[in-house]
Every structure is written in structure tokens, then in C-alpha cells.
Task: inverse folding
């Protein structure tokens, strides 16, 4: 793929807020002045299924989708989903993974087991991996649902957009009454990434 | 001003800028956001129609009366609207009319993947295919102009990846388009056979004019690269070609019906070898080949599912690389560094915690009934562990399918059979099926799963909710009265959160040798947010796993017994009803 384009995959479970995170990320990326494309497929996947939001930005962006082996960043909102989508990451890409386990239905019903040691296994294979307890930071921010913004705060440290662009993107994307708590969550992620 | 916009919002914005007056749709992924967005513009009348056929008819009426009109639907919705569409092709329009067809390659949220470009060719109306949000906005504006210039409806064909991806869009202002004069013209708008014969000639004559237009239409453009390799493409596939084969010459077709024969012929003769890259069917390829031209396409590319840059690179890139490897994005031919991990548990979509449909499907499974199903959230009743749906064909099909089963196998079979349908779907196209059952002396039981919304597509209103697309209060259809009006005498309403009541009603109604309707009524759990939560008394739990049979995402089994996730639980209480040990209680109830 075109290396002047940054490709990011946000993966998680329906209801975790990947779509909103993708919107904030894309709006912040618009501040760079190039093209931005976002793809999120929803439909039945809303109902607790595996979801992915794809964001690409750069001087000229064609496809709105990230191809296997080409993502610069994979931000996983859940451990199992990190593992599922790992083939999308390029070899020296950055994996950011929320240390949270959400058992899928086959695990809940006992038809399958949640694989143990996922983080250790991925740690052996991936050179650049950051693990973060985003749920805990979100709780500290004041709302467990802001874990998506904690993860955006972590990601933001790796990207060229400045802090103001993120602040504006947040303000444009989040309803007024939830803005402060989301800002706090973003800040905690931003600090944690150091 | 620039804005990041969903393809569907760009369509709405473009229609608004083009002065559209009337817009109609039935919600369906991936088309839903078009009307949601248009309903927010005060200059536009936007409605949720009862179904897609009615939506197109409303648009036709607006167009004939002189106001620009839009009808939007998902691909299978066009099947519902196909009847008026084929005749609309004959009458043509007065003010511009655009039909948006949002196709779903890869079936992200559909029962099939059909290529609706064939409908454009079938009806002989032009088909425009945008490849991103900006193009979607520009093309729909042009589509209204084309519609009026050529006296024809125009199809704007989106695919999920265009409808549901966001790109930067340059905003324009609305241009008010005055109403066109309404002129009574029965020879044009009353399609009785004598008029229809004449209009068919007009369709042919229009097609010839359109064939001239497309040769120079700005949407069909050549991007010259290396002239040894040419690619003809349309829609989102254009972007995959640009990623995978950055060096080749590309003919991008923005109009995929009718095709510009001269332009295509010239392009093919200017390159040494020519490929066609298109999603789903060989729609372009077959037409081009019919002219005796040599192109390669589906031989090398799949006819199923979405394309991607890698699929294009692997299908065609290797051939192109043999000509000159610099024409191909070689990174897409390399294996990804990380292999997919084997044996990961899947994460299938499932009914939400507290979903009112769960109790009905649990009961249907307990009673081992045959279930003719329908399209909506409740289609998930077919998935494990509920496994209680036998058929799902198309919207509104459940009652008719159940009637056919009964007619083939007899009344005794109908005693072990129910059909299920949602409230929105019942009003969409279930009413006619139910009337058919009554009229033709069926004896089946229909369960209307009334959650008071169109939940699957994101909670749109419908005639049973009492609100319009713009959220204004309106007449609220009364399902009991509708059902009685269709001739059903046995009508009862149950609470699907009450398993005993639900089971009794289903047992009695299926046993009755006459047609009956059960309305299982509870608001969608996502709208109510639940009332309290339940917990497991560990000392009482016997770890039997009965509660897991509900397939509720809030319940799991640990070594010490069942566990209810307090964050997810919506307090429907079904688990406490299925627990044989009475170990599941309402949180706080133990302290009373």
C-alpha cells in the first residue's frame, strides 16, 4: 500500500464505541489537510458481534479499507479481537491492546473456551505492543463507556496530529454533557502512553 | 466548506442541494441514513414509507406533480418496488426522480447479495455508480438533471462500502428548483396497453439518446498510465484498482448503464491487454464481450463477496507483474507478517440482553415447533442456542411460507407450526400474507413480535409507533384492530417476559384449528434500558446450565456456578424463570 498513507484499524465488540472513536480519530486527522477515509460496516454486527472501524489518511487516499498486512496501527478494544485482526497489522506496525476479556457467545454457552495467554502469545510475535487497562482508566475518568477515548489518548501519542486537533475533534463528536468525562479519559490515555 | 461525510449523508446532502422536495424510503441496511439525514432538512418532505413499493410510488407521484423526488432502499427493497419501477421506466418523469439502490456485497446485513445494476438494464434507465462520498454527492445532483433531460428515472447504485464509508466532501448550497408545471397527460402517465405500446417506443428512443450522452459524460473518464495494461472498472472497485495496480491505464465508468461503446472500444484498442474489475456479477464484462471485444474479468476475480485491493492484486496483479512488476503494488502480493490464529472462538451477532424476542424463541424451542421466520433482529432466533427458526426468505414472507407448508402437509402440521414477524415487518408486507391466510382458510398461528420500533436498522419509526420520520406525532396504527380487520378472530396479547403466559398462549393458539395471531408486546430493550438487574445466589446454584440455554450475553458459567454480568443485565427476568433451582433473584430482593 501507499506508505504516505497511515492506515489504522480499530477493532472490538459491538457496543464498545469503536465507531465513535473512529469518528474522533478521523476528524483529528482532517487537521493534517490531506484526505481522510473511514469505513465502518454495521448492521447485524451491532448486536454484540466483532466490529472493525478502518481509518486511512494521507495526501491521497483511494480505498477506504485497510488490507491484511498493511495496517500501521491496530487498536484492539478487546484481547480476542486483537488476535483475530492481527493479520491486518504490518510486521513493524504498532499494536495497542486493551487488557479486557469479553467472552463471545460460544464461550458463554460452553461450546468454546476463551483462549488463555493471548497477550503473552501476541507479545512473542509482535515487536511493538502496548497493553493498557483502558477500562480501569475509564472508570477513573468517571464513566466505563469512555474506554474508547482512553485508547484514542494512547494512540494520539503515536500520530502527527496536535493536541488541539484532538480536542476539537472530541468537541465535534461527543454530546456536550459527556464532553468533560471523555476529555478526562483521553487525557488519562495520553498520559498512560508515556 | 469541507466535512467528513458518510456516503449516505452525502447522497442526502446532494439531493438537498439539488432541490429535492419529496423523499421516501423503508429503512434497510445499508440505505437507512439517507432518509434519516433528509428528514432533518426543513425544505424536504421525508417519510418512512410502509414499504419500498409505496416509497417509489410516492416519489413517482411527486415527480409527476412537478417536485423533484428521491426514493431510497436496500438492494432487496428494489425487488419489492420492481413493479412500479418497470412501468416508471415507460412513463418517464416530470420533475427529476432518482432511485437509490444500496447493494450489500458480502451480505453484511442481508439475505442475499444481488447486483442491482441489472435492474437498471432491465428497466432501461441510466445507472450511476459513485465510488466515494464526494462523488455520491456530485452524482446525485447530476442524476436529477439527467432525469429531467432524458425524461427518465435514474438509478444511483451504492454498495455498502460506499454507503457506509466516510470521506471528505465539499459542501454546496441548496438551489431551489421551482415546481414544474403539472400537466395532465394520460398518454404518458396512464399505462393502459395502447399507451404502454407507444411509451415502449419512447423508451427505445431514449436509450439511443442516452447511448450518445454516455460517450462524453464526465463520469466516464480515462486515467492514462502505462498503455500496455488497461483496466475497466466502476464504483468502489476503482479505488481497489488504484491501490493494487497504481501504474496501469484505467477507464472509470461512472455510468454503468448504458455503456459508452465507442469510449470502451477506443480504450481497449489503445492498450495491449484489458481487464474488467467489478464487484459481484460480470455486468460490464458481459456487455463488452457481446460487442466482440476481448477483455478478462471474472476468470480471474471472484463473483462472490466484496473485492479488496489484495484480491485485485492477487487476481490480476500477477499477470500484470509479468508485463512489468512496477505497475503492481508488490506489498499486496506478499504474505501478511502475522498469520491468523487458528481455533479462535467466533463472535456471532446475538439478541441483546433483555431482548423481548428471546422469551418467544425460547418457548418455541421448548415446544419444538416448526417456525417460519422473517427479516429483523428476530432472525437471530435461528442461531444457537435458540435454534428455533426454520425459514427466512424475504421481508413479509413468514405467513405465506407457513400457509404453503400447511397446504402441502395438512392441518395437523399446522398444529406444530407458527410464523413469526416483527411489528414493522408486519406492516411492511406481512399484512397481505395474513389476509391471504384468512381468505384461503389457513389455520396457522402468527406471532407478531411487537417491540414498538424498527430495531434492526437502528430504531426508525413506522405506522405502529405513532411518530413520523421527522419525529412528529401522527396516527398510531393499532395492531389488534388491523389484525381483526384482516379477519382474525383469535387475537391475544402476551408479555414475552412472562414465559408461562407466552407458552400457554402459543400452545392454545397452535392447537386451535382456525387462524390466530399472538402479539408478543414489549419495547425493545435498547430503548427502555431495563429495570433493575438479576443475580445468582451461589449457594443455591446447581450449575445445571439451564440459564445458558437462553443465549443471553449477560450470563456465563464459572466454576462456582452461573454468573450474571451486572453491567449488561437489563432485568428481563427470563433467567429466573428458567432456573430449576430458583437460584436467580432480583438484585436487592434478598434483603426485603
Result:
Amino acid at each position: 500500500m501507499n506508505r504516505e498513507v497511515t492506515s489504522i484499524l480499530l477493532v472490538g465488540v459491538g457496543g464498545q464505541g469503536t465507531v465513535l472513536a473512529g469518528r474522533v480519530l478521523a476528524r483529528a486527522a482532517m487537521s493534517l489537510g490531506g484526505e481522510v477515509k473511514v469505513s465502518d460496516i454495521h448492521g447485524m454486527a451491532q448486536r454484540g458481534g466483532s466490529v472493525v472501524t478502518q481509518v486511512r489518511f494521507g495526501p491521497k487516499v483511494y480505498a477506504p479499507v485497510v488490507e491484511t498486512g498493511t495496517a500501521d496501527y491496530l487498536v484492539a478494544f478487546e484481547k480476542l479481537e486483537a488476535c483475530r485482526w492481527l493479520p491486518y497489522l504490518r510486521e513493524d506496525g504498532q499494536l495497542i491492546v486493551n487488557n479486557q476479556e469479553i467472552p463471545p457467545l460460544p464461550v458463554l454457552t460452553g461450546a468454546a473456551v476463551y483462549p488463555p495467554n493471548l497477550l503473552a502469545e501476541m507479545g512473542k510475535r509482535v515487536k511493538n505492543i502496548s497493553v493498557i487497562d483502558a477500562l480501569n482508566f475509564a472508570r477513573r475518568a468517571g464513566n466505563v463507556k469512555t474506554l474508547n477515548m482512553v485508547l484514542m489518548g494512547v494512540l494520539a501519542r503515536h500520530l502527527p496530529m496536535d493536541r488541539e486537533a484532538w480536542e476539537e475533534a472530541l468537541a465535534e463528536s461527543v454530546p456536550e454533557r459527556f464532553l468533560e468525562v471523555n476529555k478526562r479519559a483521553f487525557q488519562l490515555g495520553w498520559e498512560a502512553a508515556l | 466548506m469541507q466535512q467528513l461525510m458518510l456516503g449516505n449523508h452525502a447522497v442526502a446532502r446532494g439531493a438537498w442541494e439539488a432541490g429535492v422536495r419529496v423523499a421516501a424510503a423503508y429503512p434497510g441496511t445499508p440505505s437507512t441514513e439517507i432518509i434519516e439525514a433528509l428528514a432533518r432538512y426543513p425544505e424536504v418532505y421525508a417519510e418512512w414509507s410502509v414499504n419500498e413499493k409505496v416509497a417509489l410510488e410516492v416519489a413517482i407521484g411527486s415527480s409527476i406533480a412537478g417536485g423533484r423526488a428521491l426514493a431510497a432502499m436496500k438492494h432487496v427493497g428494489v425487488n419489492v418496488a420492481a413493479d412500479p419501477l418497470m412501468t416508471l421506466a415507460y412513463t418517464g418523469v416530470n420533475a427529476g426522480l432518482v432511485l437509490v439502490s444500496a447493494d450489500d456485497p458480502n451480505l453484511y446485513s442481508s439475505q442475499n447479495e444481488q447486483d442491482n445494476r441489472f435492474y437498471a438494464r432491465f428497466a432501461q434507465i441510466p445507472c450511476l455508480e459513485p465510488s466515494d462520498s464526494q462523488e455520491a454527492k456530485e452524482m446525485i445532483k447530476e442524476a436529477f438533471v439527467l432525469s429531467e433531460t432524458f425524461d427518465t428515472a435514474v438509478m444511483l447504485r451504492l454498495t455498502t462500502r460506499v454507503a457506509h464509508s466516510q470521506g471528505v466532501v465539499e459542501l454546496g448550497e441548496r438551489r431551489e428548483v421551482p415546481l414544474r408545471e403539472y400537466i395532465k397527460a394520460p398518454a404518458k402517465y396512464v399505462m393502459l396497453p395502447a399507451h404502454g405500446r407507444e411509451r415502449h417506443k419512447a423508451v427505445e428512443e431514449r436509450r439511443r439518446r442516452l447511448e450518445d450522452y454516455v460517450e462524453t459524460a464526465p463520469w466516464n473518464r480515462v486515467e492514462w498510465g502505462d498503455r500496455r495494461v488497461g483496466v475497466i472498472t466502476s464504483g468502489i472497485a476503482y479505488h481497489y484498482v488504484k491501490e493494487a495496480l497504481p501504474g496501469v491505464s484505467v477507464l472509470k465508468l461512472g455510468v454503468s448503464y448504458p455503456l459508452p461503446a465507442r469510449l470502451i472500444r477506443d480504450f481497449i484498442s489503445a492498450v495491449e491487454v484489458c481487464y474488467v474489475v467489478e464487484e459481484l456479477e460480470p455486468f460490464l464484462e458481459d456487455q463488452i464481450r457481446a460487442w466482440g471485444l476481448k477483455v478478462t474479468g471474472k476468470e480471474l476475480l471472484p463473483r462472490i463477496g466484496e473485492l479488496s485491493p489484495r484480491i485485485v492484486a492477487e487476481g490480476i496483479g500477477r499477470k500484470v507483474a509479468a508485463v512489468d512488476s512496477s505497475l503492481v503494488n508488490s506489498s499486496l502480493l506478499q504474505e501478511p507478517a502475522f498469520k491468523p490464529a487458528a481455533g479462535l472462538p467466533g463472535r456471532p451477532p446475538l439478541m441483546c440482553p433483555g431482548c423481548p424476542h428471546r422469551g418467544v424463541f425460547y418457548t418455541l424451542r421448548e415446544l419444538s415447533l416448526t417456525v417460519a421466520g422473517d427479516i429483523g433482529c428476530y432472525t437471530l432466533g435461528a442461531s444457537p442456542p435458540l435454534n428455533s427458526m426454520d425459514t427466512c426468505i424475504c421481508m413479509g414472507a413468514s405467513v405465506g411460507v407457513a400457509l404453503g407448508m400447511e397446504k402441502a402437509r395438512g392441518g395437523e402440521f399446522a398444529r406444530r407450526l407458527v410464523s413469526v414477524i416483527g411489528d414493522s415487518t408486519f406492516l411492511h408486507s406481512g399484512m397481505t400474507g395474513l389476509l391471504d391466510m384468512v381468505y384461503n382458510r389457513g389455520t396457522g398461528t402468527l406471532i407478531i413480535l411487537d417491540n414498538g420500533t424498527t430495531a434492526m436498522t437502528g430504531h426508525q419509526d413506522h405506522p405502529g409507533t405513532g411518530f413520523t420520520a421527522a419525529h412528529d406525532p401522527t396516527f398510531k396504527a393499532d395492531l389488534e384492530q388491523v389484525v381483526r380487520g384482516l379477519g382474525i378472530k383469535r387475537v391475544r396479547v402476551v408479555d414475552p417476559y412472562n414465559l408461562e403466559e407466552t407458552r400457554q398462549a402459543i400452545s392454545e393458539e397452535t392447537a386451535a384449528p382456525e387462524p390466530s395471531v399472538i402479539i408478543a408486546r414489549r419495547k425493545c430493550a435498547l430503548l427502555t434500558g431495563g429495570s433493575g438487574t438479576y443475580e445468582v445466589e451461589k449457594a443455591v446454584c446447581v450449575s445445571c446450565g439451564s440459564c445458558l440455554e437462553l443465549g443471553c450475553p449477560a450470563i456465563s458459567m464459572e466454576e462456582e456456578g452461573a454468573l450474571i454480568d451486572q453491567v449488561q443485565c437489563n432485568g428481563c427476568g427470563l433467567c429466573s424463570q428458567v432456573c430449576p433451582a430458583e437460584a436467580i433473584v432480583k438484585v436487592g430482593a434478598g434483603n426485603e
Observations:
- Chain A touches chain B through 59 residues (CB under 8 Å).
